[in-house]
Specification:
- By secondary structure, this protein is an alpha/beta fold.
- The protein contains nine helices and nine strands.
- The protein has a single domain (about 10-15, about 30-65, about 125-275), classed as Phosphatidylinositol (PI) phosphodiesterase (TIM Barrel, Alpha-Beta Barrel).
- It has helices at about 10-15, 20-25, 45-55, 95-100, 125-130, 130-135, 155-165, 180-185, 200-210; strands spanning about 30-35, 60-70, 75, 140-145, 170-175, 190-195, 215, 240, 270.
- Helix 7 links the parallel strand 4 and strand 5.
- Helix 8 packs parallel to helix 9 (about 200-210).
- The protein is globular, with a radius of gyration of 18 Å.
- The chain starts with 8 loop residues before the first helix and ends in a 7-residue tail after the last strand.
- Bound molecules: SN-glycerol-3-phosphate and calcium ion.
- SN-glycerol-3-phosphate binds near residues 78, 216, 241 and 271.
Length: about 280
């Protein structure tokens, strides 16, 4: 690894388990998801990124991020603000959908060309764009971006749209705001929920408190002391994400390209930026 990057307990674990590839043969193969779509090959959270993911055989599904517009529409964009991925300025919630649709996707600090007519998609447009795959069982992990701005009513709006499209069994909801997942469970105990966070034991404790179905920790928050995972309820999925992967055109180099190794630390699923590399 890069000598300038400080080693943490996970780096040390994998150095001590240099035979991890051999060990992987004895654990369940993790399932893979396309983070913000195929966001290393296409601008994140855009229709092309989602359609590319939906065409990858054996990919479980996609992860995407939702925010609400001024007029209460559900849009798919990671940040609360527009600057990083579009040519707009300010907060998503201060614009109507019609106003947001005049903006162009510019990519994530992108140095690569971006298709000129890409706009921020609505969640409805994403459903429509990959509906054949969804009908065949392709999944969507909808991350409700409501931990910075609470977006009252977001849970109800997402549930209503999912119901309209009859996609109940295709959707896993997640949030960095555990109470939001508890609230969803009160609205409908049959919806699937996951607690997002950094550290796995924190996620497990919140999942138990809120009656959530899964934990979504960072891979860096996994516990190399696998014997300490006794707090994980049996069968609870551990879907991990990695904030170190590059995005389309951002000029960074992929440092970690063996995400499957985290299955040794209990990851059942991995949410990755270039899912085609793994499935
Ligand atoms: O849902 C996993 C992951 O997407 C959470 O982090 O910042 O990429 O939304 P972030
Ligand atoms: Ca996300």
């Amino acid at each position: 690894m890069d000598q300038n990057v400080e080693k943490d307990k996970l780096d040390i674990y994998f150095e001590e388990h240099a035979d991890w590839q051999e060990s992987l043969k004895s654990v369940q193969k993790p399932r893979f998801w396309g983070h913000r779509g195929c966001c290393m090959k296409y601008p994140e959270n855009t229709i092309p990124a989602f359609q590319a993911a939906a065409e990858i055989p054996n990919l479980v599904g996609i992860e995407l991020d939702v925010q609400l517009t001024k007029d209460g529409e559900i849009v798919v964009i990671h940040d609360e603000t527009l600057e990083r991925t579009t040519d707009g300025h300010g907060n998503v919630r201060d614009y109507t959908l019609a106003e947001l649709k005049t903006l162009h996707i510019t990519g994530s600090r992108c140095t690569e060309p971006v298709e000129p007519h890409l706009t921020i998609p609505t969640l409805r447009e994403v459903f429509e764009s990959i509906l054949p795959a969804l009908r065949k069982g392709f999944l969507i992990n909808i991350e409700m971006k409501n931990s910075v701005i609470r977006y009252e009513g977001m849970e109800e709006k997402v549930m209503a749209l999912v119901k309209e499209y009859d996609l109940h069994d295709n959707i896993i909801n997640s949030s960095f705001l555990p109470e939001s997942m508890g609230y969803l469970k009160k609205l409908d105990p049959t919806v699937q929920t996951g607690i997002l966070g950094e550290e796995i034991h924190w996620c497990i404790a919140r999942a138990i408190e809120q009656g959530a179905d899964a934990v979504h920790p960072s891979v860096r928050g996994l516990d190399p002391n696998v014997d300490a995972l006794t707090d994980l309820p049996e069968g609870m999925p551990v879907r991990c994400w990695n904030s170190e992967e590059p995005f389309y055109g951002d000029g960074r180099v992929l440092r970690e390209f063996h995400m499957e190794k985290y299955a040794l630390l209990g990851a059942t699923d991995l949410i990755v930026n270039d899912p085609g590399m793994y499935v």
